Amino acid sequence: TMPKERKEWDESITKESLLGSIRNIDDFDHEFFEISPREAANMDPRHRLLLEESWKALEDAGFGSESATEEKVGVFIGAEDGDYQSIVGNESGLTSNHNAIMAARISYFLNLTGPNMTINTACSSGLVAVHEACQSLRLNECTTALAAGINLFTTPVSYISMKKAGMLSPEGKCYAFDQRANGMVPAEAVAVVVLKKLSSAQKDRNNIYGIVCGSGINYDGRTNGITAPSGHAQTM
């Protein structure tokens, strides 16, 4: 269920909601990231979380604020449109809730000069961000890449829309690639990975948690609905 601190959610919706959620999304060390209290309060929580998780990911990979500027680091963020603007209204500045700034803010804070973009391909945004990051590494546009995916429900609007469209599982379970599939369970998350060419990571003795062996992008063409996948297209 949704955290109690999301007071803008209607109580009846909150009780019925089946979804994964992130607690305490308002917690943020604005002084560390050199952001004023007012700007931090009006800033989309996704911006704040990405700053925190990107710093943690780079730190785990052995990067400091100085060493990060010595390489050409790209930032690729997968995210759909946010809804925090409807909460803060006219109090927010131009950059506080802009999707492009979500990625740019990371490069700005860390003084990174590689490619920088926020990608919205709906549910696949995070995976497409990883693909684009890998492509950028292959083309030598950057030597290191941050790839991330993030999703938050700061208002009930998206949840209600998915419910009306019949996209949500009444059982609260996802049966992926299963004939029992009857919908999805939405969830909040923020994930950031640091990507490098394997040879470079081995040479630099970075922590290696996995290897991307391949990736690709496709659209499913015409199906029985614009949100419905095509099994045929996805197996090709």
What does this structure look like?
The chain is built from ten helices and four strands; from the N terminus they run ααααβααβαβαβαα. With 236 residues, the chain is α/β, with parallel strands linked by helices. α3 (45-60) runs parallel beside α6 (99-110). It starts with 10 loop residues before the first helix and ends with a helix.
The radius of gyration computed from the alpha-carbon positions, rounded to a whole number of angstroms, is 19 Å
Percent of residues in helices comes to: 25-40%
Instruction: Tell me, rounded to a whole number, the average pLDDT.
Output: 87
| Main β sheet profile | 4 strands, mixed
Percent strand: 5-15%
How many distinct beta strands?
4
The ordered H/E elements are: HHHHEHHEHEHEHH
Straight-line distance between termini = 37 Å
Tally of contiguous helical segments? 10
Structural class: alpha/beta
> Which spans have pLDDT < 50 for at least 5 consecutive residues?
none
Topology summary:
Elements: H1 11-16, H2 37-42, H3 45-60, H4 65-70, E1 73-78, H5 85-88, H6 99-110, E2 116-119, H7 125-138, E3 144-151, H8 157-164, E4 189-195, H9 198-203, H10 231-235
Parallel strand pairs: 1-2, 1-3
Antiparallel strand pairs: 3-4
Helix pairs in contact: 3-6
Distinctive features:
4-stranded mixed β-sheet, 236 residues, globular, 4 strands, 10 helices, single chain
Summarize the structure.
With 236 residues, the protein is an alpha/beta fold. It has helices at 11-16, 37-42, 45-60, 65-70, 85-88, 99-110, 125-138, 157-164, 198-203, 231-235, and strands spanning 73-78, 116-119, 144-151, 189-195.
